[in-house]
Request: fold
Amino acid sequence: MITKDEIQELLHSTETYRVERTISTGDMDKFQEAICAFSNDLPNSRKKGYLIIGAYDNGELSGLKVDDDLLKKIAAIRSNGNILPLPMMAVERVEFDEGDLLIAEVSPSLVPPVRYRGRTFVRIGPRRDIASETEERVLFERRTSYMATFDATPCFGTTLDDIDIDFINREYLPQVVDAEVLAADKRGVKEQLASIHLYDLTHDCPTNAAIILFGNNPRHFMPGNYIQYVRFSGNAIGGEVLNEKRFQGPLARLLPELEQFVSNAIITQRPVAVSLFREKTVINYPNNALRELLMNACMHRDYQANMPIRLYQFDDHIEIMNAGGLYGEARPENFPTVNDYRNPIVAEAMKEMKYVNMFNQGIRRVQEMLRENGNKEAVFDVSKLTVFAVNVPSTVDDGTQGVTQGVTQGVTQGNELDVWIESQITMNPKITTEEMASSRGVSSLTIKRHIAKMPHIKYVGSGYSGHWEIDKKD
Reply:
């Protein structure tokens, strides 16, 4: 952090592009615009900018007393989500005989342009203003030179025809750029896309992020860019494959399709008898927990790998595995407290489209939702260098093993599936094993196996003309 002697120099410095002095303590818009402008460092000075609260423009101190509340309020600017990407800054109180100063030290961003509520602010000498089209282009080209992440690099061999421009203009741009700025923007489509990191002007092609998010055929350029769902019978991969589906396409179309599939095809709820006259609804997985895990898999995966995201469902658990282990500052010893982003542009876009929040709360929320639903906590395997895996236990199996402890209490006539089969036969003596299997979501072989262990149930007659009979039990 800056020293007192350096502060004295800055108070009277002529380097006005990196110093803003104010006596105001409550103009949060002004403070955030200044921090955004310092982060963008338009002159490319590579020097830190300073917001000095408690000083007049001529460098004299106002006599301010900086308390903890003011310190916390200014420090909170860093992570309140209004400035994206998050600024690199430090806040400190410095005491002088004439009064206190609150110093916000802001480092130039490595991923400009930085925006405050959708607007790019820059510093033009002593004046703060919204960046022009040319200035935004300069900032974006600087970002490309700084960033080495895969999603920021050009996707060579692609053109504008390889991305869904109509969707970007209709759905995405209004979410990431301020409406007034968007209405006044007269730049060409390439320059507009470059300002949101979806086009590389130097190489005249879309970025990898543009193909991942909005590409017409992402797998043509990234063969492993899809999700493979398989439903296995039993609790291991060796079981019979009951269902299989492949999700592919850009994230803008894939993510809503995946959400709908999880809700309709994976999440199940059913009444379970807990006594002769009482039932309890059991849900196998909390929908939002699976959604959170799958969104994180899409956000953090290594898109250069040929391995797809694997979503495997078994009778008693779900496994999610994606290419790419922990990244950057995240390591096994600090997981899940510390997070980092392999694909910062993809992550930022998914946040803007409301699929993730980027506040590093996802895993904690997943575990809470699982506990509340009666599941055991998810088990994360972060020991591998090239893959990331999570195992999510179900509250119930396919019916062949009954239900979890607590639900089974009070079931006195065999296990839960036996009770259910008997109730179906009582309501409809001509019901078939195939109809029961379809209604229950299990195989007809499972139904037949259970009936074979229930000697008081027998089938009278043959074929479709027969019917079930239940002998009275003592």
About this structure: Residues 416-470 form a domain with the Arc Repressor Mutant, subunit A fold (CATH 1.10.10). Confidence is low (pLDDT under 50) at residues 397-414.
